[in-house]
């Protein structure tokens, strides 16, 4: 395609538009790909692992696109036709993709720090607020860093203002993941609905559906939750070539559905009606989790978490030998206190009470990462305390159940129920029927497992997939918007 207009290009001595600080003549000028080849050289070099060359290509793509923007769109917009302003949005999306790839290369080359200042220099490549918002988005992605610092990323993204004011369909889900718990339930659900209405990315869709289902479930809306899960599963089954992340989300959707049916009795439904549905969904989840374990690209925390989630499924199926096997597989890879809580529960179920008690006695509230894990610890400690009938443990359980957590209603209800049982055990003494009650009260889905689906962590979202592979995937289809 021959341009029928004068191209606006930087002078040779002018600072290059790729943000490198080099002069255009000595930077991107000789590498401009033209319309037929834009993106190709980058892909080629990236695939072959020639990252230095990929950096040159990625820069040249950014410069090339900026030249087009300034030569076409920026001029046309001067004509003042509001219809043509759509072209600006097209340019914003396209340039974002190229800049994102540029960031991937800097990341891969271990030059992340540098990329922040590159971004600052790219702020004016397209002179609209939407573009500057994109720069903030990229800065926030960079702020996550290798240690996945969500607070830093959140500070960055709030520069855009409150989430309700964000309309960009790729920034919105990212913002929402970071804001998460900071939003009230109603606001969080309404923002999820906005994402579901606008996103074109099915990974984003299935993730947000599962999150919504958990939120509804943890606020007693089992029916609403099941409906949303059906939609999530439908989305998951429509993937043609699902990646690891999408398969994980599908497995989680089945697992959650199975667990809601499993817990039906505790929310006033006739549990016997849902027994079969629970079993079918949980078995499907177990199969999917087991298949995911065969994937190669997990790191040790990711694979540990996967074993733990599989153990959670077998737990609801009552297959205790398999729970033990998988929980211990998780522990071998990552010695998390929360895994030990469930190891203790299994030993108790298998009749090895001394082992169970010695594990649970070795844990304390401060060991746990968040309130959801604390909630599971408190419930299981209490259950074992009731079973042991030991007064000192029961008093300890009573104190623990009184601890103020930022509790979801579903935990508050369970804690209250357990508190009654503990008090009865203290006042009247231990009995087989109390033991049964305590077992029932702690037999529901694990809150920490639900939470692991909600939050944004590399070992959850990318499921501990090798970070480099995540970035590779991101470069292929720019999926970073929902990470
Ligand atoms: Zn350049």
Summarize the structure in words.
Residues 456-483 have low confidence and may be disordered. The chain has 25 helices and no strands. The chain has helices spanning 34-37, 40-48, 51-71, 73-78, 85-108, 112-121, 129-144, 150-157, 171-179, 185-198, 202-217, 222-237, 244-262, 271-293, 300-317, 320-333, 337-349, 353-361, 371-388, 391-402, 409-428, 432-441, 447-454, 458-461, 467-477. The chain is elongated, with a radius of gyration of 26 Å. It has three domains: 1-127, no CATH class; 201-294, Serine Threonine Protein Phosphatase 5, Tetratricopeptide repeat, CATH 1.25.40; 296-461, Serine Threonine Protein Phosphatase 5, Tetratricopeptide repeat (Alpha Horseshoe). The longest helix has 24 residues, at 85-108. By secondary structure, the chain is an all-alpha fold. Helix content is 69%, strand content 0%. Helix 2 packs antiparallel against helix 3 (51-71), helix 13 (244-262) runs antiparallel to helix 14 and helix 21 (409-428) runs antiparallel to helix 22 (432-441). Zinc ion binds next to helix 3.
Describe the secondary-structure layout.
Elements: H1 34-37, H2 40-48, H3 51-71, H4 73-78, H5 85-108, H6 112-121, H7 129-144, H8 150-157, H9 171-179, H10 185-198, H11 202-217, H12 222-237, H13 244-262, H14 271-293, H15 300-317, H16 320-333, H17 337-349, H18 353-361, H19 371-388, H20 391-402, H21 409-428, H22 432-441, H23 447-454, H24 458-461, H25 467-477
This protein binds zinc ion.
At CATH level 2, the architecture of the largest domain is Alpha Horseshoe
Number of helices: 25
Gross geometry: elongated
Distance between the termini: 37 Å
Write down the domain tally: 3
Largest sheet: none
Structural class label: mainly alpha
Number of strands: 0
Mean pLDDT over the full residue set: 86
User: Order of SSEs, N→C?
Assistant: HHHHHHHHHHHHHHHHHHHHHHHHH
CATH fold topology of the largest domain: Serine Threonine Protein Phosphatase 5, Tetratricopeptide repeat
Poorly predicted regions: 456-483
Residues in helices, as a percent range: 55-70%
Radius of gyration equals: 26 Å
CATH class of the largest domain: Mainly Alpha
Q: Ligands in the structure?
A: zinc ion
Percent strand equals under 5%
